[in-house]
Amino acid sequence: MKPKKLVILGSTGSIGENTARVVRNFPGCFEVVGLAARASAEKLGKQAAEFNCPRVVIGGEALVAQVRKYAPDCRVDVGDEALIDLVTHPEVDIVLCSIIGTGGLLPVLKALELGKTVALASKEVLVMAGELVMKTAREYGGRIIPVDSEHSAIFQCLADRHQSSEIRRLILTASGGAFRDLPTAELENMTFEAALNHPAWRMGPKITVDSATMMNKVLEVIEASFLYNVPEDRIEVLIHPEAVVHSLVEFVDNSILAQLSEPDMCLPIQYALFHPERRQGKLKPLNLAAYGQLNFRAPDPNRYPALELAYHALREGGTMPAVLNAANEEAVEFFRKRQIRFTDIPKLIEVVMRKVPCRPAPDLPAILAADREARAAAGEYLKIL
Fold this sequence. Notes:
This protein is of the alpha/beta class. It has 16 helices and 11 strands. Helices cover 45% and strands 15% of the residues.
C-alpha cells in the first residue's frame, strides 16, 4: 500500500511531537511531505532532516537559516501564504493541524475546500468558525477527524453510524487540571508555573493552563456542538481524575458507550491517521484491575466559573464563540506575564463577551473582525485592573 502523504502543522509542539512518534512507529505507512512551526527552528530542522521532508514553513525570516543548518536540502518558506500552499499541494493526503491559537483556521479551510482529510487537534478552529468549517467540509467533500482525546472518543463511539437525533447526551470528561483538589480560596495566588503541573497529561503550556481553568472544556463543548450537530443543552462535563474514560455518548434508548484507554495522545493521533483502520501499534494497554475504581463527579461552578461561558457562547451563536476564544488566548498570555491573577482569567473573558457585539451568521471576515475586537477589548480591560 502506498504511504499516506502527511503535512503536520505545529510539528514542534506536544501534538506534533506525538505525531512524529506515531510516524516512527509505523515505518513505510506515512511520508511526511510538509512541516510547519512558529518559532522552534532547531527542532523543526531536525524533524525535516529525520523524515527527509522536502518542505517546511517557519514563523519568521530570521529563523530560516537556523532551520537550514539542520536540513540544508529542505525548502524553507515563511508566512501565511506559504502555509496555505503547503496544505493545498495536490499530493497531500492528510493535514494534521495542531497549531495553537487562530493560525490554523485558514489552512484548515483551504484544505477542506480541496476535499482533503484534516486530522484536527487545534480547538480554536472549530470554536472560532465551527459553522463555517463544517459547512465547508460538507460542500467540498473534505473530512474532519478529531484528534482531541475527548472528541476522538465520541467519534469512535459514534463510529459514523448514528444521527444526532439518536444522541441524548454527549458527556465530556475532564481531569480537573492542576488545581482540582486545592481549596478555592487559594486559587487566586496560583502561578503560571504551578498551573503547568497537570496530574495526568503532558501537553503544551496554553492548553495546560486551560485545563486548570476548565477553559479547555469550554472550547470542547463548543467543538462538540459543531462536530456532532448537538445543541448545548445536550452536552455535559464530568470530572474524571483517572483520565482513562475519555468521553461517553448516551443514546435515546438509555444506552451509554464510552471509549477508554491510557492517557496517551498517540492513540487518538494514530486513530485519526489510519481511520477507518485500527492498527496494533506500541501503546500501553489499559489495565482496569490496576486502577481498581474509576471516579466521576460534577464540576464545582465555584472552582470552574469558566464552564458556563461555553453554554452562553453557544446560545448567543454567531461570532460569540470567536470572541470567547480570542479573549481566553489574551487572558492566558496576560497570566503568563503575571499581569493578571489566575482567577482573573474567566472574569476577563466574561467582560469581553459582554463588551464585543455578537454578529449572526458569520462569514470569515466577520469572524476575524470579532477576533480582533475581542483582543482589543481584553487589552482595555487590562488597563483598568
